[in-house]
Amino acid sequence: MTTSPESEHPIKAYGYAARDTSGLLSPLTFSRRATGEKDVRFKVLYCGICHSDLHVVKNEWGFTKYPITPGHEIVGVVTEVGSKVEKFKIGDKVGVGCLVGSCRSCQGCVTDYEQYCPKNVATYGTPSYDGTQTYGGYSDHMVADEHFVLRWPENLPLDAGAPLLCAGITTYSPLRYFGLDKPGTKVGVVGLGGLGHVAVKMAKAFGAEVTVFSTTPAKEKEAIEGLKADHFINSKDEHQMQAARGTLDGIIDTVSGNHPIAPLLNALTPHGKLVLVGLPEKPLDVSAFSLIMGRKTLAGSSIGGLKETQEMLDFAAKHGITADIEIIPIDYVNTAMERLVKSDVRYRFVIDVANSIKAEKHPIKAYGYAARDTSGLLSPLTFSRRATGEKDVRFKVLYCGICHSDLHVVKNEWGFTKYPITPGHEIVGVVTEVGSKVENFKIGDKVGVGCLVGSCRSCQSCASDYEQYCDKQVQTYGFTNFDGTQTYGGYSDHMVSDEHFVLRWPENLPLDSGAPLLCAGITTYSPLKYFGLDKPGTKVGVVGLGGLGHVAVKMAKAFGAEVTVFSTSPAKEKEAIEGLKADHFVNSKDELQMQAARGTLDGIIDTVSANHPIAPLLNALTPHGKLVLVGAPEKPLEVAAFSLIMGRKLVAGSNIGGIKETQEMLDFAAKHGITADIELIPIDYVNTAMERLLKSDVRYRFVIDVANSIKAE
């Protein structure tokens, strides 16, 4: 009877695995062996993503057995050692690279080249000696015989050092073996990716004069200034390649794509060595003549043995060599793989395993509505939220607005949705629990949460109260939180958030019709303030009279502006003038009306997301006028530089607002009686509401009566 991955060994493990040739990775519970007498068990802290991981999860090399958990650039801290382990103790920092087993008796093994043992056991995806499959480092812990465990140097960073367990030894070993480690040796490195950039660093540390070959001229600055290479050659430039003939003692070729070898052999001096560490798919075209006439060598090299890998780590620590990395959480791994295919990383992804891989869900049960696929249809979902931390505020959700962006996200129209997804970022409710260090809220307070629930709190944007522009911002739903889990929005019975991102609700601001202000309100208030369009008498245009536009009119009027509404729907004129008290209405399809509006406005807030012409709006501005986009049309804008230059006009964008400004906006709205015009609905009407929203069949914002309609099963 076949044994499942979860039951073949006694120790439960948790990781991410691919299950078929799509290569998509998802959580897998499996098992690892008990700690044997010569075994070291360790908690995985970081694991690098190697390009070979991508090949293997998609079975591009033809030997993958699913499910497969990749990862052979693994570092961590020892949690248990066997009774006969001599070199390690609990608490030691360690690494495991590409191998976890070999016969220990063949010629390769006895000469410390275990990588060439015919019975070697790769760290993942190969049968171990007990017949079970090995699982790699995209997992919470590892166990390995101490011979294959590496002591981690004290001053070598764990995260940026992890890729050295493959990229480091793959480049260090051939430099040493082929005698390219002598000061003054002239060494070429082909390719400037995950392997190549480390090869440059290793060769420079040996004292070599390094020449980088790349087909990408844009990499020259990085090669010379960033990595301190001595020369750069565009390998597509025949003149540069001709000038390089006969100049190099050796070349480390890191490129896996098919590429010509002859020009590289020509670049070698007599007795020169071209060493392949990348794996092109097609056979090489090699002229025997080019080897014979200069006694040149074409060779290959695969990683290194355990003794040499330890030497490499100590060498890297001594010379400050690390990989250039981008740290990611485990649930970003599929996106990272997609980017790796496009070479969209500089230069190596490293998974922050310990801080993002979680075997257990959050402890607090929650209930909401979620979309599960690109149909966007929402249905009940039971999920979980974290326990209330010391700086957290937990609140019962009373109302949640439906934003047009919710519609885009549930259908994955912007391309980044991870299902299941619970939308909602216009959330108001009443506090039910606060953490021990919360200072600004107490149980019973009315509160709101808008589009953000996290940011780094230390970058320039955060320090300037513009958290919405923080590179590490965490949005209220569909984003990865700092604990590695996904955020869930306000189409749910309760929320929990750090108090910094919780807003005090003004006493006289209605909860239901005020909820949309947490997106529509701040999206329009912020650019009016930032671009100086908040002064009485300022002439402000508002393009579009929908969920955003009608709030923009109210905000601008409250600032004392003279407001002109632009709309393609003449029927909206009465609502704009009589209902919202705008001063003027322009049918933007009427050329005469648009002509009459030329040069009349100090600024325009453009709320329209559909594709529409920009030139007529720029014409409506006075000199020094500002056209600010808060809607995001799908197609690029057509902007004539002349129309900007001749009036010193500007086109700008604006995205919501920071937490401090959002609180100011709520207080301003309460003072001036500003709310959204809403239609209140129960949660089970949400799919119909989405259909109507698609047709602009709402005046002007749907708000879900969450507390009175969502019921946990």
UniProtKB/TrEMBL annotation:
GO molecular function, one term: cinnamyl-alcohol dehydrogenase activity
A Pfam family reported for this protein in Swiss-Prot or TrEMBL: ADH_zinc_N
Keywords: Metal-binding, Oxidoreductase, Zinc
Domain Enoyl reductase (ER): 23-351
Keyword Cell wall biogenesis/degradation carried by entry: no
GO biological process: lignin biosynthetic process
Cofactor(s) listed: Zn(2+)
Xref: InterPro entries: ADH-like_C, ADH-like_N, ADH_Zn_CS, CAD-like, D-isomer_DH_CS1, ER, GroES-like_sf, NAD(P)-bd_dom_sf
SUPFAM superfamilies xref list: GroES-like, NAD(P)-binding Rossmann-fold domains
Family: Belongs to the zinc-containing alcohol dehydrogenase family.
Protein name: Putative alcohol dehydrogenase superfamily, zinc-type
